[in-house]
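queue> pop job 88
queue> type: inverse folding (structure -> sequence)
queue> payload:
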């Protein structure tokens, strides 16, 4: 369906009317644009070089005396800055970023090396768009962290405070990401720039897949822009945001130069609401070698695949067959739940260059058939399940709900209301049914990796046959998941990763290994509160960081002496603002008269 720009702007205006004015979903809608930029200021595909975020180096290193494992200590500062995203020099975009960049710096470690991440909130006191206090809660998405370090939505760090997050890093190699998870403002804060990748390596993954400059982080997001270059924001009555500019690592539709060899891409969909369907312009197959929770048992070949918000897929693309000077595009076929614009069918491009290839690297021409054949999650069977639980995803009284429960009800219960109580090491089947009309829900379960058993009674798609922590629950779909709980006790969240849905109010929690009223030393609201940051605090202390149960702790892997940099290309470095004061710094602004909303028109 094609919609004129004027019609889209009028429909987009409905998104300003509040929660009661629900935009009705439809099949993929097409329109010219959403931004208010002058045409000459609007970015166009394939005119910007590809860049990557820098790799964050540890501030200090230590050894945990409790178990002898190495610990890396990092510091990131959340602050306001300006980024050169748009083509006109000087037309910069205010952002909120880890260390003032978007995406934030990548963290890269080996399995068995623990991390302590100090997050300093040096943001303005309030967000200039809507005046909410810029409190944040950092979630390492994909990590089996203790509850008090998991980014529990209401465990917030206010401006002027910091918090130390302890990450055990005992899981198999995987692509994780850290992002803001502050209650009710996750969408706006993440959209403003608080997101970054985090890579966990292990010997199997290092032996089988490309490393260093050929191991490439790709963070995809979308945005709309106001006339002054600031980010536009319209979540269409809390239904979703669809921008008309596709950003890859913070750059619009970039071009990457590639050698004639195999590359590995860690693709994160960091869009607030947009789902993707990546494909190559040549029609050649893409090799899927990893999902959210790490390597798949065996490589899966696809021509395209559905990629929900917050999902990570690791791809191998073999450029050996292409001629020097050939351009290969990574395109987006889109899905039924999007608002699409002139150029949202494109993501990035690869230009094949005639550089010498190091053929002594065994991964230069390798696309392995077998990978993590002994993955614990993928070895689970339904016969091991002790219980099946059912969850309905719906829209109730203007709020997004899970089993008719909202996060407001969890808060009102003193954080005791749970959707499930499970035992440590219990194996269960969880079934999610999407009854919300034409909306899809990227459903995220904290703490665990799971296996997708079926979708509408049929086998999972081949590209989903790996350990997952986000599942694409499409319109009218019912998915069945198999998972084992642990190793930690405590409360963890379940929510939709369409962040507009999460914020209003599609999130509940489950409790592991405890009953209501039991003492909870890992209570996320009390166990590790934020600390006032007066500027004199030392770097994170080398005190022991928490470990999983002994059975889950791997043999220590030597600390990498040369942590691979994702790419030799320079990183984007926006000019940072001075240390923020309580005076609000410009950030995303809502385009006037509903422009940029791309609200979903009623089905016709």
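queue> result:
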């Amino acid at each position: 369906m094609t919609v004129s720009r004027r019609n889209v702007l009028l429909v987009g205006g409905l998104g300003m009317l509040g929660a009661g004015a629900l935009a009705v979903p439809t099949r993929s809608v097409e329109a010219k644009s959403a931004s208010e930029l002058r045409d000459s200021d609007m970015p166009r595909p394939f005119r910007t070089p590809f860049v990557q975020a820098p790799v964050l180096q540890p501030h200090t290193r230590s050894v945990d005396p409790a178990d002898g494992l190495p610990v890396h200590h990092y510091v990131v500062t959340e602050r306001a800055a300006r980024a050169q995203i748009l083509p006109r020099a000087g037309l910069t975009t205010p952002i909120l970023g880890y260390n003032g960049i978007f995406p934030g710096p990548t963290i890269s470690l080996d399995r068995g090396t623990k991390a302590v991440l100090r997050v300093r909130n040096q943001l303005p006191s309030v967000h200039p768009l809507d005046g909410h206090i810029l409190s944040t809660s950092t979630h390492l998405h994909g990590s089996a962290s203790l509850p008090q370090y998991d980014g529990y939505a209401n465990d917030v760090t206010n401006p002027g405070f910091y918090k130390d997050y302890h990450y055990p890093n005992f899981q198999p190699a995987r692509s994780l990401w850290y992002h803001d998870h502050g209650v009710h403002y996750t969408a706006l804060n993440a959209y403003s720039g608080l997101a970054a990748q985090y890579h966990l390596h292990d010997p199997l993954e290092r032996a089988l897949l490309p490393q260093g400059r050929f191991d490439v982080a790709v963070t995809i997001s979308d945005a709309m822009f106001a006339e002054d270059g600031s980010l536009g924001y319209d979540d269409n009555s809390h239904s979703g945001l669809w921008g008309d500019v596709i950003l890859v690592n913070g750059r619009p539709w970039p071009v990457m130069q590639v050698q004639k060899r195999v590359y590995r891409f860690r693709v994160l969909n960091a869009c607030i609401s947009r789902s993707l369907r990546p494909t190559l312009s040549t029609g050649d197959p893409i090799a899927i070698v990893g999902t959210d929770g790490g390597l798949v048992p065996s490589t899966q070949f696809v021509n395209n695949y559905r990629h929900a918000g917050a999902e990570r897929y690791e791809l191998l693309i073999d450029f050996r067959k292409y001629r020097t000077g050939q351009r290969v595009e990574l395109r987006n076929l889109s899905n039924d739940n999007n608002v699409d614009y002139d150029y949202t069918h494109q993501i990035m491009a690869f230009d094949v260059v005639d550089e010498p290839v190091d053929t002594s690297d065994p991964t230069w021409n390798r696309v392995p058939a077998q990978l993590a054949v002994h993955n614990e999650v993928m070895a689970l069977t339904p016969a091991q399940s002790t219980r099946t639980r059912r969850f309905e995803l719906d829209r109730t009284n203007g709020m997004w709900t899970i089993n008719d429960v909202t996060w407001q009800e969890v808060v009102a219960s003193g954080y005791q209301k749970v959707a499930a109580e499970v035992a440590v090491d219990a194996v269960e089947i969880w079934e999610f049914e999407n009854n919300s009309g034409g909306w899809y829900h990227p459903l995220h379960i904290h703490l665990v990796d799971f296996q997708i058993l079926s979708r509408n009674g049929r086998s999972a798609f081949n590209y989903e046959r790996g350990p997952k922590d986000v599942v694409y629950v499409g319109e009218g779909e019912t998915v069945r998941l198999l998972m084992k709980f642990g190793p930690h006790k405590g409360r963890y969240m379940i929510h939709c990763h369409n962040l507009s849905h999460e914020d209003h109010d599609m999130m509940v929690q489950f409790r592991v290994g405890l009953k209501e009223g039991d003492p909870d030393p890992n209570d996320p609201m009390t166990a590790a509160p934020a600390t006032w940051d007066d500027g004199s605090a030392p770097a994170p202390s080398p005190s022991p960081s928490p470990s999983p149960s002994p059975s889950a702790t791997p043999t220590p892997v030597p600390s990498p002496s040369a942590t691979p940099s994702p790419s030799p290309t320079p990183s984007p470095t926006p000019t940072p603002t001075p240390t923020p004061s309580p005076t609000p710094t410009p950030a995303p602004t809502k385009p006037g008269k509903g422009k940029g909303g791309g609200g979903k028109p009623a089905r016709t």
